[in-house]
Structures are given as structure tokens and as C-alpha cells.
Specification:
The complex is a heterodimer of chains A (377) and B (357).
Chain A (H helix, E strand, L loop, with lengths): L1 H28 L4 H6 L6 H10 L8 H12 L49 H6 L2 H28 L4 H15 L2 H18 L23 H9 L1 H39 L2 H8 L4 H24 L2 H4 L2 H6 L5 H10 L3 H29 L7
Helix pairs in contact in A: 1-16, 6-7, 6-10, 6-12, 7-10, 8-10, 9-10, 10-12, 11-12, 12-16, 15-16
Chain B lengths: L8 H5 L5 E14 L2 E14 L3 E5 L6 H9 L7 E10 L2 E2 L5 H7 L4 E4 L13 H13 L3 H14 L5 H4 L9 H13 L5 E5 L7 H18 L2 E6 L2 H7 L2 E6 L2 E7 H6 L4 H8 L39 H5 L40
Parallel strand pairs in B: 3-8, 3-9, 6-7, 7-8
Antiparallel strand pairs in B: 1-2, 1-4, 4-5, 9-10
Helix pairs in contact in B: 4-5, 4-7, 5-7, 7-8
Amino acid sequence: MTKYIIRRTLGLLPLFVGAVVISFLLMRAAPGGPQAALAGIKSITQEDREKWLRRWCLQAEVTPINMLKEFGGWLGVLNCDSDTVPEIFFSAQGGLNVLPAALGGGDNGILHGDLGLSIRAGRPVVDVILERVPATLLLTTTALALWVGIAILIGTYAAVHRYSLFDQGMTFLAYVFYSLPTFWLGLMLIFFFAVFLRTSGVTDFFPSGGIITTRDWPPFNTPQYWAAFGERPMAAIVDIGRHLVLPVFTLVAVNIAADSRFVRAAMLEALNQDYIRTARAKGLPARTVIAKHAFRNAMLPVVTNVALELPFLVSGAIVTETIFTWPGLGRLFIESVGARDYFVLMGLLLVSTVFILIANLLADIVYAIVDPRIRYD
Amino acid sequence: MTVPTTVTAPARASAGNDVLLEVRDLRTYFHVLDGTVKAVDGVSFSVRRGQTIGLVGESGCGKSVTALTIMRLLDIPPAEIASGEIIFEGRDLLTLSEDEMRHVRGNDIAMIFQEPMTSLNPVYTVGDQIAEAVMLHQRLSKKEAWNKAIESLRAVGINNPERRVKQYPHELSGGMRQRVMIAMALSCDPKLLIADEPTTALDVTIQAQILELIKDVQDRTGTALMLITHDLGVVAETVHDVLVMYAGRIVETGTVEDVLLAPKHPYTEGLLRSIPSRGMKGQRLNVIKGTVPNPFNMPKGCNFAPRCPYAFAPCAEYDPRIEEANPPDVACWLYTPAPGSPIPPRIRPRRPVEVGA
């Protein structure tokens, strides 16, 4: 088993390298990068502009050699303050740029662990991303746990009571919610719960966006906020919970629709197997046949499916976060697109890639644990 | 448990007319989109303690549905048990509650299926799956049930059962899995074992071993056996009495010698003739001409008449029923005078059929 995991992990490395190169090429191939944004600003002198471009190794023209320079700058191998070989490989401190700063190397880039420097924030990308992680994880783990749990309940019950009123009702609802675009559903929820219910005086429980009530609390995820959180934890949790309801519902509705169909299909397939007939012929009660013999088999494809849904935890809520002004990674992505902050964008792509790879690895491992037929030698 | 769980060999010796299972006018219909299929359409037979009967017929004739109806394993709907009684040890199984029926299944009546490759649950060890039935019916502890599982694996000729019991089905061969199925079926000492094509999915050499094993455990435990098959060779080797089914009806019954050596019903004769034999190398195989009648549109008279080489006037008009037949062992107007028919029955002497001739 350990060997199997190690082999699988090593197999991911080339995939990771490939994903890094491709995400760079894709970003760079799109016209209108940071250079174009800068060129539009008339108040900056040519000198400043060049200095600024050098800072991020950005090149004016797209040529193969310039692409290599930009990629090298992003990785943290090259120091574009100098243009000539071999100086370009050395940092201002005189060491090879690829070495850690403590050993006289450069101070930003993938290989230095900070994922480069954010153009917009002027801070390491890794810091920009990390400060958005708590909000996103709070939203996505809540949503994922809810929708997987509910989808398994609905799907299993619908399969066992196939063609019942419940099954047909759930089928209908699944198609309705699966067809609803997230942005439309989100806006309608805001319109009804946050606007209509408030203006008609029914309740002002549902906020229209954000993660906290900004008038009552310091900005989220700042030291002041956590200090306030420590003083009044119950109030803080209720406040966040209020803000969670609508975005979580938006995410959960669509995904329950999809996953409950998946669970139902897996369960139906399991229920039609010969071993179910064998289990019934033994005289087992229907509940045992379903809960023990059918359910465990039906969960095999479901476990894989859920493991492959895990990347959603960091990248899945772009639209929902934007609609509900949720201060998470999804909204950071949209903001960075607007600001042409390519280094944050590439950093986010990189983080998603890593998550997708880890989720795949996890799917393989979990599958090998739950299905005795998988060989891992 | 008031019912004794073991039937010993002496019980079988004194069997005589001790009827274990009696099926009376059983009708199982399936309601599907296109109409109603009468899969079992008036079947009656009985099984004595320790007796072996063979239920023979081609695919789709209602053999398996008969067995699944006795076990009450059909989903209702689409299935419907339209009429009949299944008297097992004096109780009509069709009137039992689902809970009462569960105590019959696996405990009094056990069943082996055709597909050993898919009949075991892939995610549990064979020991778990055998012990599960034992714990359920015999109220044994987990440890005792596990030991019983090892014992029953040993009883079906599996080497090193202590190791096998911990294995998953995919680690076993087809023949081995069928042995496990048999071990599971026999683990609670059933009074009746229904084997639905137990050897069809196996290699010929393994088939012989499995049949030998079934006969052997039957001798040891005295359980009655209902063997469902389309393989007349298997019937000849294994059973005492034969029921031949065609299109949901029993068309001929008798001892294995009578039915196989001197068949009365033209269908039985056709079945025997279509067995390939070594002497007919290079010749075309004999077949029963035509196909099984459309289940949604059964012929008015005898179901077999459209394919029957001996069919004559009453066959298209009147439906022969084995319950009304005289002699009572064959449903055919060649033996029983057709009611109101001016044409006298064409009595044919019993004559041996040369297999494949």
C-alpha cells in the first residue's frame, strides 16, 4: 500500500510540471496582459515603465526567447534587472538567482516558494492567496459536506423506492435545479430573501452578500477581527452563519441535483446485481440487503466521484463568491483578471492544479481501500 | 426455533409419501408495458422429503420464475402471483408475511443460482457471506458462525478452508465460487435446495464435479433437491423424477427413465432428438422447428401445436392440460381424447428415442 501511494505520487510530478508550463503559456498567449494595461497609462514615463517591466521580467514583444525569459522570471531562475548572459542568472546580491535569498539568490518566483509578486498588491502572491483561503474553505467545505450527505440520502432513498412519488418528485427537482444557472439562482435568492423579505418587513435575517456584517465587525481575517471573534464567539459565528445561508444554498442546490442522480444510478445498478438476489435468498431483511450489500457497492463509484469533486474546495465557487461578494479565492480570481494581475492568476491556477492532482491521488487511494478487487502491487 | 434444523438420513429413508412441498395451480404473471406475460401458467407438482426432481425446458419456459415464486423473490409489481398455493410443510408460503417468509428463505429452502461469478458480493469475504446466513437463522455468535462457515467450506470439498474463508470472491475460480454458493446454501441445513442451472456457467469438467458434490451433500444431509436445468445430461445423472416445462406449463412428468427413454410429449421427444451425438458427425443437428410462441399472443389450442410434427385437428382448437389428462403424465391430445372432437386420439406406443437420432 505504501509503495502504491509513493508510486502514484511520483507519477504526479510530470503532470505537475506539464500543468505549470501550460498554465503559463495559456496566460501569456492571451492578448492584453499587464504590459498592455501599463501602456494605457499616459502619466508614467518610459523609464519608469521599463523599470517596472523588468521587475516582473515582462517583455514587450512576444517572441520565443522573450517567452523563455518571462517563464524564467516567473519560476525565479532569472533576474531581469540585467539583460545579458550570464548576469541575468545572478541576483543583485551576486549569487545564482535560483538560490534562496539567504544564500545570495533572488527573492521571488515559484521556486522561491512565494509564487511571485502580486502586481496589484505588491506583496508575495502566496500571502495574497493565503489570506483568502479561510473564507473560501468555510464556504466550500460547508457546501460540499451538505450536498454530498444530502445527495447520498436522496439518491439512495429514490433508488430503493424507484418510480415512487418521492423518486419522481426528486427527479423533477433535480432537472429544475441542474438547469438553473448559478448566477441567476444566486441573484434570485438575493432578490427574494435579502431584498423582498427585508423591504416587506418580514425579516432582515438574510444579508445580500459578504461574510460578516461590516458595520458591526472589523474586516474579516484581520488580527482585529479575530480579537473581536475571541471576545464574542457566539455572536461572530451566528453572524457568519447568516451570511453563509444563501451562497451555500446556491452551491448545494445545483450539486445535489447532479450528485443525487449519480447516487441513484449507482444504487439502482447495485440493487440489480445477482448478489442482491443471493442476499435476499439467504433470508436477510430488506434493510440489511440494502444497507449492507447494495449500499457498500453503490458507494464505490460515489467515493471516486466525491474525491474528484474536492478541487472545488479551492476553485469551485468563482461565480457564487462574486455574486455574494464573498472574500474568497474565487473573487480574488475575478479581481485579478480585472487588474491584469497575471501572477496572482497563475498562482491560483497552480494551487488548483495541485488540488486536482491531490484529489486524483486521494480518489485512487480511497478506491483501493474500499474495493478489495483493486490490486496495488 | 421449534422447527428442527437438520434432516437426517433416516428421515429420508422413511420418506415414502411424506410430501415436503406441494405446488398447486401456480400462476405467475408479469405486467409490462406491452401487456401481460404468463410466465408460469398453471403449474402443479410436489416434492417429497429427500427427493430429487428435475425441472427441464428451454430458456424462457418459466423454470426459474417457478423457483423464484416459491422463494417469493420476485418483485411485486411487475410480477403478480395470480393464483395457486405453495404448501411447504403444511403452510402456504404465499400467505406468509414477509417476516415469516424470511425465516423460510435460506433456512428451510435454500437456493443456488446460475451465475457463480456474480452471485457473491464482491466487497465481502466469502466467510462473511456464509456466516451472515448462519448468524441470522441459527442465532450463533460471530465466532461460532465463522467456524461454521469454515466447516461448510470443508464440507463442499474446498481445500484449506481456514484460508479460503478470508478471501474475497474475485480471488476464487468459477467452480470454487459455486462451491461457496453451495456451502452457503447448505450452511443452515435446508430441507429443500433449489438449484437453478447450477452448472451452466461452468466448464464441463467442473460441471461434473459440482453435480457430484450436489448429489453427495444430498446423500449426506437428506435434503430434497429441485434441479432446474436445460441440460438433459445433467437430469439423467442426477434426478429421480422429471417435470418438462414448455411456455409456462408442465407438459410431461415421470421418472427419469420413463421421460428420457420413452418420452410421450412431442416436445420432450424433440428435446431429446436435438442433443448432438457422436454418431452424427458431419450431419446437421436436429432442431425443434419454429420458435417459442410470443408470450403476448399464445396460441388458442396447444402451445406447442405450431411446432409439433404430430399436430392434428384438435391441437389448434383445444388446450391440453396435464391436470385433466388421462394418462395423467402428459398434456397432449395424442394421449387424451380431445373434448367434443370427432377425431380420435392417435395413440402411439411408448418407444425409446435414440438420443440425437
